[in-house]
Amino acid sequence: MNKTWEDFSIQQPVVTRMLVNSIKKNRLAHAYLLEGKRGTGKKEIAKFLAKTLFCKDIYGEMNPCHTCVNCRRIESGNHPDVHIIEPDGLSIKKQQIQLLQEEFSKTGVESKQKFYIINHADKMTINASNSLLKFLEEPNEGTTAVLLTEQINKMIDTIISRCQTLSTMTVSKEILSEQLTEAGINPVLARVVVQLTNSIDQAQSLAQDDWFAEARKVVLQLCEVLDSSAGLFFIQEKWIQHFKEREQVEIGLDLLLLYYRDILSFIIGEEDAVVYRDILEQMKQRALQLSQKSIVEKMAAILEAKKRLNANVQGQLMMEQLVLKLQEGS
């Protein structure tokens, strides 16, 4: 389903209203700074704004058609007058901005408009930032720049002062879950994936991944065998076969953490907060068997395991030690 500005207004009402009003009145700023946490849709909004400016068949409330040649090329990253700058390694370097400035000086290939997105703008080196200032101080007519950052505090004041800053808000889990369900995602999976990411695109990708659906099953199977002596055997036979990469193990630990958080929700009388809603009866039984102190200790053990994982402790060893801790007081 193709998005509209109305869709963005649900997630980011203030940013959407300001941009749409500016487009309608032909008063777009020459440079915007979209700042906010990861997963709040900054890059998606920037690309959507580019589509709106270049679309050949605008409809409704300034919505791009998504099907014309300009919309399709912007989506694929091949439009000659729309440029996206990403960090080269750990930073955005002066040479990248200089190449961009060379494009500034040219006439638009197919129109008088040019559009630039600088992703992770906080990662510009000092030389790159100083090089960009000239464009921001003396913008070319028909040129729009959108800078994106998750860490505005790391950007130099002279850059910030020459942009119109728009702050994106973290999207509520309820809204994300509803959007995923409307997109055809299983409501049970939708409720789980929104706990792992604030990005609707990442959440949808995860929910549609067969590996993730199986990962959830493996985690719940582990929780069932923790009461027996089969925990370590399960890690060797099932867990390490499914969670092979470090990023996958981290997802597994997050899913495990959600399980114990759900049990804690039962214990403190907040059943509505439970994520694994398809196993409510099992959760209730576990809540009767475990104390609040025991649950908190198990959650702390999982968080400690995540730290050890990030410190490059061997995955199987880390999980075996975690299982032993989780079995204490069970």
From TrEMBL:
Protein name: DNA polymerase III subunit delta
Enzyme class: transferase
InterPro entries in UniProt: DNA_pol_HolB, DNA_Rep/Repair_Clamp_Loader, P-loop_NTPase
SUPFAM superfamilies in UniProt: P-loop containing nucleoside triphosphate hydrolases
Classification lineage: Bacteria, Bacillati, Bacillota, Bacilli, Bacillales
EC number in record: 2.7.7.7
Native source species: Bacillus mesophilus
Keywords: Nucleotidyltransferase, Transferase
Keyword Transferase tagged: yes
